[in-house]
User: Fold this.
Amino acid sequence: RILPRTALAADIRRTLRRERVVGVDLYRFTSNRRAYLTLSHPDFLQPNIAKLEKASVGGFLVSAYPTDMPSVNSESRGVKGRQLASKRGAITGTGPSGCIPNNGRHVCISGLPPKVSSDSIREYLQRFGLTKLDDKTEIYRVPLPESAFSLFSRHLLRTQSLSDSYHIVRRVHMTYFQPEVFGKKFLVHACVVR
Assistant:
């Protein structure tokens, strides 16, 4: 239940070894310090909970309890499915692994101006020498919750490979968005969603 904010599914897998982690629970592509574990048989539940109560991840003691698996949005399959899900506001980044495939090909970029377009983001990324970004790189806006307000926006990029994702994060994280226009107003944060 309580994990360090930097915990990845790989950290939990290393701790649990033989069990299968469904994913780190995310809220708008940011860890909320929880993970879900799927067991192969209900009889394994109580012994595993007892063992997990003695375990730690990254120096934090684990608090385990049984729960139902949260619903996962499966409406974002294929390019057209993701585009429709984005238009409906269904890509929220909330749930196990942000409710997207955790293959490392997704990058979350936050701290952008609220009305920025996909073309502006693509142009911004190309300034860093990211010439591999062609029309196949998909850029989707992550909507705010219903009654929320923010001076910044958050976008999800789907790249062609895992290495492209990490390359974008290395180049873009902790840089300013169009400093010649906005100055130091919009500090960009980027992370690979796994």
Q: What stands out?
A: The first helix runs from residue 9 to 16. Residues 17-22 have pLDDT under 50 and may be disordered. The chain is about 25% helix and 25% strand.
